[in-house]
Amino acid sequence: MIEVRDLRVGYAGRVVARVPELDVGAGECVAIVGESGSGKSTTLLSLLGLTEGADVSGNIKVCGVDVLKAAPRELRAIRGARVALVMQSPQAALSPTTRLGVLMRRALKLHGLPAGGRVMADAAEAVMLDPGILRRYPHEISGGQAQRFAIALAIALGAEVILADEPTSALDVTVQAEVVGVLRRLREERGLALLLVSHDLALVSTIADRVLVMRDGAVVESGPAAEVLSRPAHPYTRELLEALP
User: Which domain, by its residues, includes 184?
Assistant: First the structure.
């Protein structure tokens, strides 16, 4: 679903992200971890061609589309419909004066998909939300509900890949577990490919199959999550693990 080789992203001659290799298959979860400014989010955004003003090189294929060679129309066609981006604070991206159901209906129509009530209700239930939430406004829901609504929207659009940028960092521990549980179940039941950006190694250990550790824009370690997190080879990975409470 995602295939990256020799990715380099730079601004004004300064390289801010270098990823030699990154693959995510159907039903897999790969996590990119590291401190703030390590290049995690830049890498994620580059997969959808959203690094405006950046100099991007290498090979990026997402759902069979060559991102660096695709026309803007091709990229718009996969954004949302096939590849969904779930941000850290989804409420900030929701119109405060529009009910959630209306927002979902508009997104479905934009991609030429049926916007029936049953479709939207099924998507809400898939992420353990009462369909009645679709009648609410963004300010009437919690942070955890907003995250799950963003995932529900991805499901309604038929997304095959979810790119999640710190999806639980603003949530309390209990709600974090709910959101991670939803993502894990969707992987298993629907075969979603999940690329997760996080600084939370404890969270990553519960869901990721493989891990890339980034520091100062470079990948310093990568491999199976169980191996990297239990027997880290790089000093920086060990530092991250030692910082866990």
Answer: 2-242
